[in-house]
Amino acid sequence: MTTLSCSPKRIQDAETPAETAELMRMRLKGIVPDVEISLKADLVFEINRLKKERNAIILGHNYMEPALYYGVPDFTGDSLELARISSKTDAPIIVFCGVQFMAETAKVLNPEKTVLIPAEKAGCSLAEGITKEDVRQLKRRFPGAPVVSYVNTYADVKAESDYCCTSGNSSAVLRYLFDKGHEQVIFLPDEYLARNTAHELGAAFVCGWDTSVDGMDLKGARTVIGWKARCEVHELFTVEDVLTARRQFPDAIIIAHPECSPDVIRLVDVSGSTKKMVEYVRQSPAKRFILFTECSMGDNIAAENPEKEMVRLCSHTCPYMKLITLEDTLESLRRLQFEITLPEDVIRRARLPIDRMLEIR
């Protein structure tokens, strides 16, 4: 569980807008321009005041912009960590500063609570890339193969699945199923994450969207059956990007998200979830790093590790994550707007694969 604390007093605990601004300057020096901090400090203070008044909790994903990421969440982390936190909170209102599928996961785990998302249209290219009918067809074509849905899916897809996973525990979940005797596992929707996980586990990979594989004999070998969706941010990173970074910064450690292509992953130094990126930089003795992931991650990690250099080669941002702003977070609390609602049967059926994911370490 990750809480935010670095300066002597947390930004969230500031007693005035002026103190909020000063604590933000201490934390975000060199990351966020002072004029931006001056403009955003009042918003941060009011969000934190109203959050306490409403007895709400705010969760912030690692891709949030720095002023929001450090200013208002009670907890931050990757999808897996925030799912675990949301399953344990007693707060009656959860404001999820992340995209739709994350807030839906929190609602599945907290059906009796009010779950809000600041931006109504904060979607995800991966979640849009698979439907519940796609899953049903895959199950008919590959009978007996358990379905593992990446957390980057909507709740109705999770409801058709046997297990969920995140980029942080995909290998653990698939290894668990292989060790239980399953030879084939359907893993969707991210093609690159599925290919990279299969490679890590020494398993074969089959294109589940290609009907020509239906007659293949898959018996006797561990096989990951993948889908064709890709993250519209991570698929933009190329082999040439890695080679350019190596030439320009030969001493830098290159860390890439496993949603990047297998060709990219083979060339970088470290591959891992956003949580792993945070922990690796924090613990590594190296002084220079390059991240191949959503750009706000570099800023947020740099703010936590001022003695280390995050090389700013990133130019790829998630348009959906950027819809989550301080202004909309405040309006979400004021109006209790953009509440996540799901059918009861979807909540019930999606809960099991999520619970199974949370039980696997």
Could you walk me through the main structural features you see in this protein, from its secondary elements to its overall organization?
With 361 residues, the chain is of the alpha/beta class. It folds into three domains: 11-122 and 321-335, Rossmann fold (3-Layer(aba) Sandwich); 126-230, NadA-like (Rossmann fold, 3-Layer(aba) Sandwich), CATH 3.40.50.10800; 234-310, Rossmann fold (3-Layer(aba) Sandwich). Helices cover 43% and strands 14% of the residues. The protein is built from 16 helices and 13 strands. The chain has helices at residues 17-28, 34-53, 66-71, 79-86, 100-109, 125-128, 132-141, 155-158, 170-179, 191-201, 239-248, 262-265, 274-283, 295-304, 326-335, 344-359; strands spanning 56-61, 75-77, 93-97, 114-116, 147-150, 163-165, 184-188, 204-207, 223-226, 253-256, 270-271, 288-292, 309-310. The strands form three sheets. It has a five-stranded parallel sheet, sandwiched between helices. The protein has a four-stranded parallel sheet with strand order 2-1-3-4, with helices on both faces. Strand 10 (253-256), helix 12 and strand 11 (270-271) form a beta-alpha-beta unit. Helix 2 runs parallel beside helix 15 (326-335), helix 4 (79-86) runs parallel beside helix 5 (100-109) and helix 5 crosses helix 16. It is globular and about 65 Å long. The two termini are 14 Å apart. Residues 1-7 have low confidence and may be disordered.
